[in-house]
Design brief:
By secondary structure, the protein is mostly helical. Helices cover about 60% and strands about 0% of the residues. The chain has two domains: about 40 residues, no CATH class; about 140 residues, no CATH class. The longest helix has 25 residues. It is elongated, with a radius of gyration of 21 Å. The chain starts with a helix and ends in a 13-residue tail after the last helix. InterPro entries: PAP2/HPO, PAP2/HPO_sf. Keywords: Membrane, Transmembrane, Transmembrane helix. This is PAP2 super protein.
C-alpha cells in the first residue's frame, strides 16, 4: 500500500494542484504521501524481499519433497523420513511432501527485511529488529514443532534461507557500502 501511495505525491505540482494539496494537508494525508514518496525505494525493497523470500521457501518446499514428522513412520505416519538433500531436484518437483523448510517460521523470519532498511539508515535499533524477527520466527517454528508438523531443523533452515534471500535482495537494492556502515552512526539520510 505504501509503495502505491508513494507514486501519488510526486504527481501533485504546487501551483497546478493547490486545491488537492490543500485538501490532503487538511485531511492530514499529505505527510503520509510525502513520507512514502521519500522512502519509495525502501518500500519497494520490502515488497520485493518478501516476494523473493516467499518464492525461495516455496521452491525448496516443492523441490525437496520432505514429509512432516506426523506423516513419517517414525511418528505413526505412512511415509519414510528422508533428509532434504536425498530428494532434492533442481528443475522438477520432487514429490508430494511439502514440509521442509518451515513455512510458518519463515513468515516470522521474513521480518528480517526490515532490519536491512534499518541498516541502510544506520538506525541504532536495527539489531532489535533483527532479534525480534529471529525470535518471532523461532516462536512460529517451535509452535509447529510442538504440534508435530516440523522438526526443529526445519525452523533453522527456514531462518538460513530467509536470511540469505533477504541479504542478497538487500545487496541488489542498496549495495554493500550502505549495509556495511556501523550502526552507532546516526544519520537521517542513507548514503547514495
Amino acid at each position: 500500500m505504501g509503495l502505491l501511495l508513494s507514486f501519488i505525491w510526486p504527481l501533485l505540482k504546487p501551483g497546478r494542484n493547490d486545491r488537492v494539496i490543500g485538501l490532503l494537508e487538511t485531511a492530514r494525508v499529505a505527510p503520509l504521501l510525502r513520507f512514502t514518496a521519500r522512502h519509495r525505494r525502501d518500500l519497494l525493497f520490502i515488497v520485493v524481499s518478501f516476494a523473493v523470500i516467499t518464492g525461495m521457501i516455496h521452491f525448496f518446499k516443492s523441490h525437496t519433497s520432505i514429509y512432516c514428522p506426523v506423516e513419517t513412520t517414525l511418528y505413526g505416519g505412512t511415509m519414510e523420513k528422508k533428509e532434504w538433500f536425498e530428494n532434492f531436484s533442481l528443475f522438477h518437483e520432487a514429490g508430494a511432501g511439502r514440509c521442509w523448510p518451515g513455512g510458518h517460521a519463515s513468515g516470522g523470519f521474513t521480518m528480517v527485511a526490515l532490519y536491512f532498511v534499518a541498516r541502510r539508515y544506520c538506525w541504532r535499533h536495527a539489531k532489535a529488529i533483527l532479534y525480534a524477527s529471529t525470535v518471532l520466527g523461532a516462536i512460529y517454528g517451535t509452535t509447529r514443532v510442538v504440534q508435530g508438523w516440523h522438526f526443529m531443523s526445519h525452523t533453522l533452515w527456514a531462518g538460513v534461507i530467509v536470511w540469505l534471500s533477504a541479504l542478497l535482495t538487500a545487496l541488489a537494492f542498496y549495495g554493500w557500502r550502505q549495509l556495511a556502515q556501523p550502526l552507532e552512526t546516526r544519520t537521517d539520510k542513507p548514503l547514495n
